[in-house]
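--- STAGE predict ---
source: upstream dedup step, 1 unique chain passed
mode: sequence only
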Amino acid sequence: MTPAELSSTVLHAVRRAVDAGELDVTVPARAVVAPPGPGGCGDYATNIALQLARPAGQPPYRVAEVLRPYLVGVDGVADVVLTGPGFLNISLGGAAPATLVEEILRAGTRYGHADAPDAPDGSVVRLHCPHDLRAVVVADAVARVLRCQGALVRVTAEGFDREWTAALDVRVDGVGPAPVSLPVTVRPVPAPADPLPLGRDAARWALLHPAAHDRPRIGDKHLAQREGNPLFRVRYAHARSRALTRNAADLGFTAEPGPVPDAPQELLAALGDHPRVLAAAAAHRAPDRIARHLVAVADAALPFLPTVLPRGGEKPSAAHRARLALAQAAGTVLAGGLTLLGIDAPDHL
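--- STAGE serialize ---
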């Protein structure tokens, strides 16, 4: 069960409790699940009971007690423990990481993409931006994300320099004043300096990683090959995952999804959250959410990657194959996210 599926399971539990007359609340649109905090246990925790306590007119712990029976026994849920003021700590069955990894590897870099168009009637999302390089880059990234969610998109700009296409791989569908069809205006805070000398990948990252209302910082730090550079960490984690696959082949084994008892919960949570992040980035026209999510995936993956291959005289086992599959899944998510941002994900770094 992925975090997204677990979130739906929690909401279904709330709905069943409401239908049974045990809770008198409106079922929320979303339930947050995350790795347990201090004092928690299990694989994931949710604060849904605290969220519902006031509208239910009951203490959070009592709401959690009501919800627990509706979660225990659900396929994929091994146990539910109440902690603190009313947190539900959920332990999943051992196959949960394997299921998530299988889903990611099956979908490849399209993991998290929508299967069906958002606009079956053929309507088009129209994005318009001023004659500003950052605005054009952000609009280009927003268009890529919207298209991965099934939308039809048209980008226009008040002005466009030809060198932008060659330097940063951006394009627009039309140049001129805003069309009369009430487009979405993309107007981030402009960059304080010309990012083109950074090259395509670093320049796009410098413009896309900050939120639209934040002023981007333009400088050589985006080119630094060290841990302090978030772009380097993301691309390095991807390259390491690909190197593990090559090294495993030299040792005579390949990846096979399976239980990973020591899998970092932060990594599983980040991988499982990828579809939600893509959908939110599309809905809010915010590619910076993807950039920050990729940093979270990389930071969770990097401590795990050195544990993948056999050490010393160890022979490859099912555990090594499962760890390799998880490493490949992390690399796949990183590659897919970077592609949506228009940034290369090299196999060698």
